[in-house]
Design goal:
This protein folds into 3 domains: about 160 residues, Beta-Lactamase (2-Layer Sandwich), CATH 3.30.450.40; about 190 residues; about 80 residues, Arc Repressor Mutant, subunit A (Orthogonal Bundle), CATH 1.10.10.2840. Helix content is about 40%, strand content about 15%. The chain is built from 15 helices and 10 strands.
Length: about 450
Amino acid sequence: MRGRPGGDTPATRGGTPRARTETAARHVSDPLRDEDHQALVDEISRLLRTPATLEARDFSLIAFASHSGVDETVVDPVRTRTILSRSSPAEVRRWFEGFGITRATGPVRIPADPAAGVITGRICLPARHRGVVRGYVWLLDDGSLSPEDPRMPAAMAIAARIGASLGARARPGARPAEALRRLLTAPRAARPGAVAAVTEALGTVVEGPVALVAVRPWPLDADPAGPVAPVLAATVLPGSGNGIRLPGDPGTDTRPALALLVRLREHRAEPSTAPAREAVEAAMGRLPEPERRAARAGIATCRGVPAADPAGTDSREAGPGWEPDPAGPAGWPAAWRRAVAAAGVATVESREGPVAEWSALGAHRLLTSLPPGPPDPAVRDLLRPAHRELARTAEVWLDLAGRAGDTARELGIHRQTLYYRLSRVEELTGLRVADGRDRLLLHMALKAARLHGAT
């Protein structure tokens, strides 16, 4: 939004200001997902119907938005210079800071000053987080806006979201966190670049065994905290960024998940997942009580990088139920899918506890690979609400390997009641519980229905 007071500017050297700035905008990029900030700046521009520019605390350009309803002449040399150079000289920064923008908690009006190269006035919206200014949203002041405009509170709320985002990205570990986020959400074609980015961000630790941890649901406003050993990176993946549809959720999952990358100790045998469990305990401990009770976690391990395969493998040829163990950074997305699936199993299977490990899921490893769909025809009638108790009885009996005494005690019923219920299950399904194949079908169909939200 600014330029060096007086003197030549890029806007005076041919081409329209808007054409030159829009060309420059295509080259504005930042590894910390500037597109998220761009959407927020666009939102402010639409709300106030004026061009807007977002700059970091050091006055480096992050994003800008033009507005079709604004005349070309509004794009003055100062704004053009900022967009093209992406920075401002120290004396220009001091000039603007002289208006108190570093301490302001609300909109600040800065009048035009042609001698300083500011042809058009500005309104500055400080983007603050936890009492610290993280950046500035600059609005061109053509006289149609004022700090008292009734739309300003909404604009300041968006600026606060920007401040929180900039604050999160400024914390220790932001670069590894963003690299992990990019890798776990990248389409397959973009994986090689994402692997290179995470390797650059984390260094040689990517060669050792790690655990991917999924904690969900995770509140979007909860702080994932910076990486503290043995956590290498922590990031929150909202909605579809979770990698796969979570078991237990009818329909597409939209709940956010916390992703943790945890370094495991080198062992000759399988690496211990104790560090991952400690990381889960610490993460859940930061949540308020209601969210802590609702949260479930899944853990999946990823082997170190074999000498013959420096990038690792993502096990792309197989589904999650039977793929070989992933290895290296290229295998982290596969391990993440397993961790998310394990968290889903923990959500619907109380006996797994709040934390489930992929390696201990047994038959659920196969069931989580099944695509969502209608229940098997054999159990469709059994799953109707009127027969919920019968379905529960059959599932508990099968979980306990058909031991009638243990099942009756678990359900708090008499054996004769159990036998009656099992006979009703046979009538509704057409399956014989004494037949091993029918029993397997019944058990797997009930488990799959539970995982995919049909019970």
